[in-house]
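Summary for the steering committee. The consortium agreed at its last meeting that each partner would contribute one worked example illustrating the joint modelling workflow. Our contribution is presented below. We chose a case with several input lines so that the handling of multiple components could be demonstrated. No manual editing was applied between input and output; the record is shown as generated.
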Amino acid sequence: MNFTKMQGLGNDFIVLFGEQALPADAASFAVRYCDRNFGIGADGVVYVLPSDRADYMMRIINSDGTEAEQCGNAIRCAAKYIYDNGLIDASRTDLVIETIGAGPQPVRLTVENGAVSAVRVDMGAPILNGLAVPTTIDAEPVTEYPVEAAGRQFRFTAVSMGNPHCVIFTDDAVHTNLHTYGPPLEHHPLFPRRINVEFATVKRRDFAEMRVWERGAGPTLACGTGACATLVAGVLTGRMDRRGIVSLKGGDLLIEWDEADNHVYMTGPAEVVFKGTI
Ligand SMILES: N[C@@H](CCC[C@H](N)C(=O)O)C(=O)O
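What follows is the complete predicted structure of the assembly.
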């Protein structure tokens, strides 16, 4: 089976194409091959599959074997994979990729000298209803809600971008001990389907630093949906403007929350790391 190892800001994936590549036990496959010592090494496995509602469908299995509804960095990688492998006409720079959690999502490629240099994704409207995120909180939106983890009190804003996020604003996000606070928050009873956890520090109204503990993958270098959730939470809590950079350990994403259509737009890179056969 041929695979392509790809990354978006260091959030890395094993990308596989076609229904024949989807194993009966996709969970075990992800656990085995995402392992960084005994496998290929990745934060998740991405399947690019046929769709009857879009050009292609993308499914993402986290490195712990659980399936996520959506993945911002993976959808950019899937778009580049589709373009690079001639799976759409070479003249096209607009395509639509379906995800389980957010439905069909329009994607625009920037192509320079025949190579994809940036990918802009319409990530859809954020879900702000607490029960729909899901959390156990019957409110909309859920902002600055208290939660305790590892003996420390935090306040979070809940946002779903198809997958669930809790965004915590702190003074020093880049030095947060993710291994201490990430697991108890990911598994907190407030979050019935577990949750992705973002710690963010707003430096300016158009710039925030963010570090992430991902549901099913632990600390990753970047999270596209988490960056979208961070900007949305920044706007909801009066900290940020609707257009800004979310700076992650692996690099920067431009995030825009359009007032007119209520959609969140994410722009960033996608790269091939290497190709192989297993
Ligand atoms: N890294 C991703 C999100 C991947 C899925 C996530 N771990 C979840 O379980 O929801 C991104 O770039 O959005």
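DSSP finds four helices and 18 strands in the chain. The two ends are 5 Å apart (CA to CA).
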